[in-house]
Amino acid sequence: MASPANSLAILLPVLNEGINLKIMLKILRATIEVPHEVLVVYDTPEDNSIPVAREMQRDYPSLHVLHNTLGRGVVNAIRAGVAAAKSDVILIFAADEVGPILAVDDMLALIQEGADFVSCTRYAHGGRRLGGSFIGGVLSRTANRLFNRIAGSALSDATTGIKMFRRDLFPSLDLQSKPVGWACAFEMSIKAQMLGLRLAEVPIVSIDRLYGGTSTFRLGPWTWEYLRWFIWGARRLRKVGAQPPIVRIPASVDWRGRVQPSAISGAPP
After folding, report:
1. CB 28 within 8 A of CB 106
2. Is residue 168 within 8 Å of residue 213, measured between CB atoms?
3. Contacts of 79 (CB under 8 A, 6+ apart)
4. Cα→Cα distances 65→61, 70, 262, Å
5. Of 160, 170, 181, 217, whose CB is crowded by the most CB atoms within 10 A?
6. What is the mean pLDDT of the chain?
7. What is the CATH number of domain 8-265?
8. Where are the beta strands (DSSP E) in 112-268?
């Protein structure tokens, strides 16, 4: 599947995430056990994430700092990161999120079991969203519920930016989003279903900006871009339909301290 040197590429698009990035990289280095590479992708030389990433490189040999020259925004950072990655499995991750790191092993397991596109979910199977903008949280939850009902989306959280997919499938997603927030993640979810890819979901507890930093959320621009993809996707998914995803619920510890093993529902198509 993946090259012997690296089985996973973790893309971290950043915009002045110096505070969060240092903590994120320490956690990644300590918890990701498979051979991997981390690409910190920045837009401008003034980004305060750059000196943090350069400093961490001394103790994290597989960490790379990449200048996105394709244009500003997450969508272009993802394009640049995928082009530079040497691994066959890509994980897109937000530098200000900590909780979803615990889901990486389950996401990789689903890829190894035959999934093409794995999306995390904050709104089903025990997933939760904590912190962040109140308005942004209400809009996100409402939009996902409406999209499930109107479009028949198979993914319970189409807008989350935590995605894993096979690198060779990326060109077929043909991203066309404007560089507004993480709208490209919504577009990816829609197109993965339209293409008939083997889908999977892993619940997460999303803790937005636990360590501070400044959000790029802007109500007006974000709302219009997400609404554009909502309408576009609803019109097309209703005609195509989508197979239910494989769902992997991570291992947990119950109130008596007993470990509950991972659970899987659904079968690979």
Report:
1. no
2. no
3. 70, 175
4. 11, 15, 34
5. 160
6. 85
7. 3.90.550.10
8. 117-121, 128-131, 163-166, 199-203, 205-208, 246-249, 252-253, 259-260, 263-265
Planar angle of CA 209, 27, 90, nearest 5 degrees:
85
What's the pTM value of the predicted model, to 2 decimals?
0.86
d(CA 28, CA 16): 19
Beta pairing, strands 163-166 & 117-121: antiparallel
At 54, which amino acid appears? R
Q: DSSP per residue over 1-48, as a string?
A: ---SS-SEEEEEE-SS-HHHHHHHHHHHHHH--S-EEEEEEESSTT-T
Cα separation, 82 vs 88, in Å, equals 10
Q: Given this model, what pLDDT does residue 86 score?
A: 94
Eight-class DSSP state of 124: S
| Residues paired with 264 in a beta bridge | 248
The answer to whether 198 touches 117, Cβ cutoff 8 Å, is yes
In tens, the pLDDT along 41-82 reads 999 999 999 999 999 999 999 999 999 999 999 999 999 999
Q: What is the largest CA-CA distance in the chain?
A: 52
DSSP state of 74: H
What is the three-class DSSP state of 136?
helix
State both tokens at 218: 């802007």
Q: Residue 243 has which token pair?
A: 């197979």
